[in-house]
Protein backbone atom coordinates (compact mmCIF):
# COMPACT_ATOMS: atom_id res chain seq x y z
CA UNK A 1 0.00 0.00 0.00
CA UNK A 2 1.09 3.58 -0.45
CA UNK A 3 -0.48 4.80 2.80
CA UNK A 4 1.28 3.00 5.65
CA UNK A 5 -1.66 3.53 7.93
CA UNK A 6 -3.76 1.41 5.61
CA UNK A 7 -1.78 -1.81 6.02
CA UNK A 8 -0.12 -3.68 8.89
CA UNK A 9 3.20 -5.67 9.05
CA UNK A 10 6.02 -7.01 11.32
CA UNK A 11 9.86 -6.89 11.75
CA UNK A 12 13.00 -8.16 13.68
CA UNK A 13 15.87 -6.63 15.76
CA UNK A 14 19.51 -6.00 14.88
CA UNK A 15 21.38 -7.21 17.90
CA UNK A 16 21.14 -10.00 20.38
CA UNK A 17 21.00 -7.95 23.55
CA UNK A 18 18.03 -8.68 25.74
CA UNK A 19 16.59 -6.72 28.63
CA UNK A 20 17.79 -7.91 32.01
CA UNK A 21 14.33 -9.15 32.96
CA UNK A 22 13.85 -11.31 29.90
CA UNK A 23 14.19 -15.06 30.16
CA UNK A 24 14.98 -15.52 26.47
CA UNK A 25 12.16 -14.83 24.05
CA UNK A 26 10.81 -17.92 22.39
CA UNK A 27 11.74 -17.87 18.68
CA UNK A 28 11.53 -16.40 15.05
CA UNK A 29 8.49 -15.79 12.09
CA UNK A 30 5.32 -14.17 9.12
CA UNK A 31 3.39 -11.27 6.92
CA UNK A 32 1.52 -7.90 6.91
CA UNK A 33 -1.92 -6.53 6.15
CA UNK A 34 -3.57 -3.15 6.23
CA UNK A 35 -5.01 -1.62 9.32
CA UNK A 36 -8.11 -1.09 7.28
CA UNK A 37 -8.48 -4.83 6.76
CA UNK A 38 -7.63 -5.65 10.34
CA UNK A 39 -9.82 -2.90 11.70
CA UNK A 40 -12.79 -5.16 11.20
CA UNK A 41 -11.48 -7.20 14.12
CA UNK A 42 -10.33 -6.22 17.57
CA UNK A 43 -6.69 -5.44 18.21
CA UNK A 44 -6.32 -8.85 19.85
CA UNK A 45 -6.81 -10.39 16.41
CA UNK A 46 -3.52 -8.90 15.20
CA UNK A 47 -0.19 -10.59 15.84
CA UNK A 48 1.45 -7.15 15.76
CA UNK A 49 -0.09 -3.73 15.82
CA UNK A 50 2.17 -0.70 15.54
CA UNK A 51 0.28 2.57 15.89
CA UNK A 52 1.78 5.98 15.00
CA UNK A 53 5.20 5.00 16.30
CA UNK A 54 8.18 7.32 16.24
CA UNK A 55 11.64 6.68 17.66
CA UNK A 56 14.11 9.52 18.10
CA UNK A 57 17.66 8.88 19.29
CA UNK A 58 19.84 11.56 20.89
CA UNK A 59 19.22 15.28 21.26
CA UNK A 60 20.05 18.58 19.61
CA UNK A 61 22.44 18.42 16.68
CA UNK A 62 23.09 14.71 17.20
CA UNK A 63 19.37 13.86 17.14
CA UNK A 64 18.39 11.02 14.78
CA UNK A 65 14.77 10.39 13.82
CA UNK A 66 14.96 6.65 13.15
CA UNK A 67 11.20 6.12 12.74
CA UNK A 68 8.56 8.72 12.03
CA UNK A 69 4.86 7.99 12.48
CA UNK A 70 4.95 4.33 11.48
CA UNK A 71 1.75 2.28 11.61
CA UNK A 72 1.31 -1.31 10.55
CA UNK A 73 -0.49 -4.51 11.42
CA UNK A 74 0.54 -8.13 11.02
CA UNK A 75 -2.14 -10.78 11.05
CA UNK A 76 -1.70 -14.12 12.85
CA UNK A 77 0.19 -16.50 10.60
CA UNK A 78 1.23 -13.77 8.19
CA UNK A 79 4.81 -13.47 6.89
CA UNK A 80 5.92 -9.87 6.55
CA UNK A 81 9.32 -8.66 5.41
CA UNK A 82 10.77 -5.22 6.03
CA UNK A 83 13.10 -3.90 3.37
CA UNK A 84 14.66 -0.50 2.75
CA UNK A 85 17.94 1.39 2.49
CA UNK A 86 20.55 0.99 5.20
CA UNK A 87 19.64 3.07 8.25
CA UNK A 88 15.92 3.39 7.42
CA UNK A 89 14.91 1.95 10.78
CA UNK A 90 14.10 -1.71 10.02
CA UNK A 91 15.96 -3.09 13.01
CA UNK A 92 14.71 -0.29 15.23
CA UNK A 93 11.14 -1.23 14.36
CA UNK A 94 11.82 -4.89 15.06
CA UNK A 95 13.39 -4.03 18.39
CA UNK A 96 10.31 -2.04 19.36
CA UNK A 97 8.05 -4.99 18.56
CA UNK A 98 10.34 -7.22 20.63
CA UNK A 99 10.31 -4.71 23.49
CA UNK A 100 14.09 -4.46 23.32
CA UNK A 101 13.57 -0.71 22.95
CA UNK A 102 10.67 1.69 23.56
CA UNK A 103 9.06 4.15 21.13
CA UNK A 104 9.42 7.88 21.68
CA UNK A 105 5.72 8.12 20.86
CA UNK A 106 3.02 5.75 19.68
CA UNK A 107 2.16 2.23 20.80
CA UNK A 108 3.17 -1.34 19.97
CA UNK A 109 0.93 -4.31 20.71
CA UNK A 110 1.61 -8.01 20.28
CA UNK A 111 -1.52 -10.14 20.22
CA UNK A 112 -3.45 -7.27 21.72
CA UNK A 113 -1.13 -6.73 24.66
CA UNK A 114 1.66 -4.22 25.26
CA UNK A 115 4.97 -5.46 23.78
CA UNK A 116 6.50 -5.72 27.25
CA UNK A 117 3.80 -8.08 28.46
CA UNK A 118 4.17 -10.18 25.33
CA UNK A 119 7.91 -10.45 25.89
CA UNK A 120 7.54 -11.46 29.50
CA UNK A 121 5.05 -14.15 28.56
CA UNK A 122 7.33 -15.29 25.72
CA UNK A 123 4.83 -14.85 22.94
CA UNK A 124 7.54 -14.44 20.33
CA UNK A 125 10.85 -15.95 19.32
CA UNK A 126 13.83 -14.09 17.93
CA UNK A 127 16.58 -14.99 15.46
CA UNK A 128 19.40 -12.68 14.37
CA UNK A 129 22.11 -12.61 11.73
CA UNK A 130 24.54 -14.11 14.24
CA UNK A 131 23.24 -17.43 15.53
CA UNK A 132 24.34 -16.49 19.06
CA UNK A 133 24.76 -20.08 20.26
CA UNK A 134 26.53 -20.86 23.51
CA UNK A 135 29.75 -22.61 22.41
CA UNK A 136 30.07 -24.74 25.56
CA UNK A 137 26.60 -26.24 25.16
CA UNK A 138 25.69 -28.99 22.71
CA UNK A 139 23.12 -28.43 19.99
CA UNK A 140 20.51 -30.09 22.18
CA UNK A 141 21.44 -27.99 25.21
CA UNK A 142 21.31 -24.78 23.16
CA UNK A 143 17.86 -25.54 21.79
CA UNK A 144 16.47 -26.52 25.17
CA UNK A 145 17.85 -23.47 27.00
CA UNK A 146 14.63 -21.41 26.81
CA UNK A 147 12.69 -24.42 28.09
CA UNK A 148 15.11 -24.91 30.96
CA UNK A 149 14.83 -21.25 31.90
CA UNK A 150 11.05 -21.41 31.89
CA UNK A 151 11.04 -24.49 34.13
CA UNK A 152 9.81 -27.08 31.62
CA UNK A 153 10.27 -30.62 32.95
CA UNK A 154 13.05 -32.86 31.67
CA UNK A 155 10.88 -35.32 29.76
CA UNK A 156 8.87 -32.59 28.03
CA UNK A 157 12.11 -30.76 27.18
CA UNK A 158 13.61 -33.82 25.57
CA UNK A 159 10.47 -34.49 23.53
CA UNK A 160 10.23 -30.90 22.35
CA UNK A 161 13.91 -30.65 21.40
CA UNK A 162 13.74 -33.94 19.48
CA UNK A 163 10.82 -32.56 17.50
CA UNK A 164 12.56 -29.24 16.83
CA UNK A 165 15.80 -30.85 15.70
CA UNK A 166 13.76 -33.01 13.36
CA UNK A 167 12.00 -29.94 12.06
CA UNK A 168 15.28 -28.22 11.14
CA UNK A 169 16.93 -31.41 9.89
CA UNK A 170 19.54 -31.68 12.64
CA UNK A 171 18.38 -34.78 14.53
CA UNK A 172 21.76 -36.45 13.92
CA UNK A 173 23.69 -33.50 15.33
CA UNK A 174 22.10 -33.18 18.78
CA UNK A 175 25.33 -33.97 20.63
CA UNK A 176 27.64 -31.82 18.54
CA UNK A 177 28.95 -28.45 19.66
CA UNK A 178 28.39 -25.25 17.64
CA UNK A 179 31.98 -25.08 16.37
CA UNK A 180 31.49 -28.52 14.80
CA UNK A 181 28.69 -27.17 12.58
CA UNK A 182 28.61 -25.10 9.40
CA UNK A 183 27.22 -21.56 9.49
CA UNK A 184 23.94 -22.73 7.95
CA UNK A 185 23.60 -25.51 10.52
CA UNK A 186 24.28 -23.08 13.35
CA UNK A 187 21.57 -20.82 12.03
CA UNK A 188 19.15 -23.75 11.94
CA UNK A 189 19.97 -24.45 15.59
CA UNK A 190 19.18 -20.82 16.37
CA UNK A 191 15.86 -21.11 14.54
CA UNK A 192 15.04 -24.32 16.44
CA UNK A 193 15.84 -22.52 19.70
CA UNK A 194 13.63 -19.62 18.70
CA UNK A 195 10.75 -22.07 18.20
CA UNK A 196 11.28 -23.86 21.51
CA UNK A 197 8.34 -22.31 23.30
CA UNK A 198 6.00 -22.57 20.34
CA UNK A 199 5.80 -18.83 19.74
CA UNK A 200 2.95 -17.44 17.68
CA UNK A 201 5.27 -14.73 16.41
CA UNK A 202 8.82 -14.93 15.08
CA UNK A 203 10.99 -11.83 14.82
CA UNK A 204 13.95 -12.32 12.49
CA UNK A 205 16.66 -9.82 11.66
CA UNK A 206 18.66 -10.90 8.61
CA UNK A 207 18.97 -14.46 9.93
CA UNK A 208 20.50 -15.66 6.66
CA UNK A 209 22.53 -12.54 5.95
CA UNK A 210 25.92 -14.13 6.60
CA UNK A 211 25.31 -17.31 4.59
CA UNK A 212 26.30 -18.25 1.05
CA UNK A 213 23.61 -18.06 -1.63
CA UNK A 214 22.92 -21.80 -1.90
CA UNK A 215 22.61 -22.30 1.84
CA UNK A 216 20.51 -19.20 2.07
CA UNK A 217 18.03 -20.38 -0.56
CA UNK A 218 17.82 -23.80 1.08
CA UNK A 219 17.10 -22.28 4.50
CA UNK A 220 14.54 -19.92 3.00
CA UNK A 221 12.63 -22.94 1.74
CA UNK A 222 13.01 -24.67 5.09
CA UNK A 223 11.72 -21.60 6.88
CA UNK A 224 8.61 -21.55 4.71
CA UNK A 225 7.96 -25.18 5.60
CA UNK A 226 8.51 -24.51 9.30
CA UNK A 227 6.11 -21.58 9.15
CA UNK A 228 3.52 -23.72 7.38
CA UNK A 229 3.85 -26.24 10.19
CA UNK A 230 3.94 -23.87 13.14
CA UNK A 231 1.55 -21.27 11.66
CA UNK A 232 3.56 -18.58 13.40
CA UNK A 233 3.44 -15.02 12.13
CA UNK A 234 6.84 -13.69 11.08
CA UNK A 235 8.39 -10.26 10.86
CA UNK A 236 11.57 -10.56 8.84
CA UNK A 237 14.22 -7.90 8.17
CA UNK A 238 16.26 -8.36 5.00
CA UNK A 239 18.36 -6.45 2.47
CA UNK A 240 17.50 -8.87 -0.31
CA UNK A 241 14.54 -8.19 -2.60
CA UNK A 242 14.28 -11.80 -3.86
CA UNK A 243 14.50 -13.14 -0.31
CA UNK A 244 11.72 -10.81 0.82
CA UNK A 245 9.52 -11.79 -2.11
CA UNK A 246 10.19 -15.51 -1.82
CA UNK A 247 9.29 -15.65 1.86
CA UNK A 248 6.60 -13.06 2.34
CA UNK A 249 2.90 -12.61 2.02
CA UNK A 250 3.64 -8.91 2.25
CA UNK A 251 6.76 -6.81 1.73
CA UNK A 252 6.93 -3.51 3.59
CA UNK A 253 9.14 -1.05 1.75
CA UNK A 254 10.61 1.65 3.98
CA UNK A 255 11.99 5.03 2.98
CA UNK A 256 15.37 6.49 3.97
CA UNK A 257 15.66 8.27 7.30
CA UNK A 258 13.46 9.35 8.87
CA UNK A 259 12.10 5.83 8.46
CA UNK A 260 8.55 5.66 7.18
CA UNK A 261 6.57 3.01 5.38
CA UNK A 262 6.74 3.91 1.75
CA UNK A 263 4.70 1.14 0.23
CA UNK A 264 3.30 -2.27 1.08
CA UNK A 265 3.54 -4.86 -1.66
CA UNK A 266 1.23 -7.88 -1.69
CA UNK A 267 3.32 -10.72 -3.08
CA UNK A 268 0.65 -13.26 -3.97
CA UNK A 269 2.86 -16.31 -4.60
CA UNK A 270 1.28 -19.76 -4.43
CA UNK A 271 3.48 -21.65 -1.96
CA UNK A 272 1.21 -24.66 -1.59
CA UNK A 273 3.99 -27.00 -2.75
CA UNK A 274 5.97 -26.18 0.39
CA UNK A 275 3.09 -26.87 2.78
CA UNK A 276 3.82 -29.74 5.20
CA UNK A 277 1.11 -31.97 3.79
CA UNK A 278 2.72 -32.09 0.36
CA UNK A 279 6.41 -31.92 1.23
CA UNK A 280 7.99 -35.29 0.53
CA UNK A 281 11.69 -34.57 0.89
CA UNK A 282 14.12 -31.73 1.33
CA UNK A 283 15.23 -32.09 -2.28
CA UNK A 284 11.63 -31.96 -3.48
CA UNK A 285 11.04 -28.86 -1.38
CA UNK A 286 14.13 -27.22 -2.83
CA UNK A 287 12.84 -28.02 -6.32
CA UNK A 288 9.53 -26.36 -5.47
CA UNK A 289 11.51 -23.39 -4.20
CA UNK A 290 13.43 -23.20 -7.48
CA UNK A 291 10.16 -23.26 -9.42
CA UNK A 292 8.76 -20.49 -7.26
CA UNK A 293 11.82 -18.32 -7.91
CA UNK A 294 11.29 -18.51 -11.66
CA UNK A 295 7.50 -18.12 -11.60
CA UNK A 296 5.98 -15.10 -13.34
CA UNK A 297 4.34 -14.01 -10.07
CA UNK A 298 7.77 -14.00 -8.37
CA UNK A 299 9.42 -11.97 -11.12
CA UNK A 300 6.51 -9.56 -11.11
CA UNK A 301 6.63 -9.07 -7.32
CA UNK A 302 10.41 -8.53 -7.41
CA UNK A 303 9.85 -5.81 -10.01
CA UNK A 304 7.14 -4.15 -7.90
CA UNK A 305 9.35 -4.08 -4.79
CA UNK A 306 12.27 -2.76 -6.82
CA UNK A 307 10.11 0.00 -8.27
CA UNK A 308 8.89 0.95 -4.79
CA UNK A 309 12.48 1.16 -3.54
CA UNK A 310 13.66 3.12 -6.55
CA UNK A 311 11.00 5.73 -6.02
CA UNK A 312 13.43 7.38 -3.62
CA UNK A 313 16.11 7.54 -6.27
CA UNK A 314 13.75 8.87 -8.90
CA UNK A 315 12.59 11.60 -6.54
CA UNK A 316 16.22 12.54 -5.92
CA UNK A 317 16.98 12.58 -9.64
CA UNK A 318 19.06 9.40 -9.42
CA UNK A 319 19.19 6.44 -11.76
CA UNK A 320 16.30 4.03 -11.45
CA UNK A 321 18.64 1.18 -12.33
CA UNK A 322 20.80 1.70 -9.26
CA UNK A 323 19.84 0.07 -5.98
CA UNK A 324 19.49 2.17 -2.84
CA UNK A 325 22.43 1.72 -0.47
CA UNK A 326 22.07 -1.43 1.57
CA UNK A 327 19.59 -3.22 -0.71
CA UNK A 328 20.74 -6.41 -2.35
CA UNK A 329 19.21 -6.84 -5.83
CA UNK A 330 20.08 -10.51 -6.24
N1 LIG B 1 20.85 3.11 19.98
C1 LIG B 1 20.95 4.02 19.03
N2 LIG B 1 21.45 5.25 19.29
C2 LIG B 1 21.52 6.21 18.33
N3 LIG B 1 21.12 6.01 17.06
C3 LIG B 1 20.63 4.80 16.74
C4 LIG B 1 20.51 3.75 17.70
N4 LIG B 1 19.97 2.68 17.09
C5 LIG B 1 19.77 3.04 15.81
N5 LIG B 1 20.16 4.30 15.60
C6 LIG B 1 20.06 5.05 14.34
O1 LIG B 1 18.75 4.90 13.85
C7 LIG B 1 18.77 4.77 12.43
C8 LIG B 1 18.08 3.48 12.06
O2 LIG B 1 18.89 2.39 12.46
P1 LIG B 1 18.49 0.89 12.17
O3 LIG B 1 19.57 0.01 12.69
O4 LIG B 1 17.12 0.65 12.66
O5 LIG B 1 18.46 0.87 10.58
P2 LIG B 1 18.36 -0.38 9.59
O6 LIG B 1 17.37 -0.01 8.55
O7 LIG B 1 18.13 -1.62 10.35
O8 LIG B 1 19.81 -0.36 8.98
P3 LIG B 1 20.67 -1.55 8.30
O9 LIG B 1 19.88 -1.99 7.11
O10 LIG B 1 21.95 -0.89 7.90
O11 LIG B 1 20.85 -2.63 9.34
C9 LIG B 1 20.22 4.82 12.01
O12 LIG B 1 20.54 6.14 11.61
C10 LIG B 1 20.97 4.48 13.27
O13 LIG B 1 22.23 5.10 13.30
List keywords for this structure.
330 residues; alpha/beta; Rossmann fold; 6-stranded mixed sheet; 4-stranded antiparallel sheet; 10 strands; 34% helix; globular; disordered N terminus; binds adenosine-5'-triphosphate
In short:
This protein has 330 residues and is of the alpha/beta class. The chain has ten helices and ten strands. Mean pLDDT is 81; it is low at 1-43 and 315-321.
Structural write-up:
The chain is an alpha/beta fold and 330 residues long. Among the domains are: 72-123 and 200-311, P-loop containing nucleotide triphosphate hydrolases (Rossmann fold, 3-Layer(aba) Sandwich), CATH 3.40.50.300; 135-198. It has 10 helices and 10 strands. The strands form 2 sheets. Strands 6-7-8-3-9-10 form a 6-stranded mixed sheet, with helices on both faces. A 4-stranded antiparallel sheet has the order 2-1-4-5. Strand 4 (105-110) and strand 5 (113-114) form a beta hairpin. The longest helix has 20 residues, at 296-315. The two termini are 24 Å apart. Mean pLDDT is 81; it is low at 1-43 and 315-321. It binds adenosine-5'-triphosphate (ATP). Adenosine-5'-triphosphate (ATP) binds next to strand 2 and helix 2. It holds the Pfam family ABC_tran. This is ABC-type nitrate/sulfonate/bicarbonate transport system, ATPase component. Residues 22-45 have a biased composition (Low complexity). Keywords: ATP-binding, Nucleotide-binding, Transport. InterPro entries: AAA+_ATPase, ABC_transporter-like_ATP-bd, ABC_transporter-like_CS, ABC_transporter_ATP-bind, P-loop_NTPase.
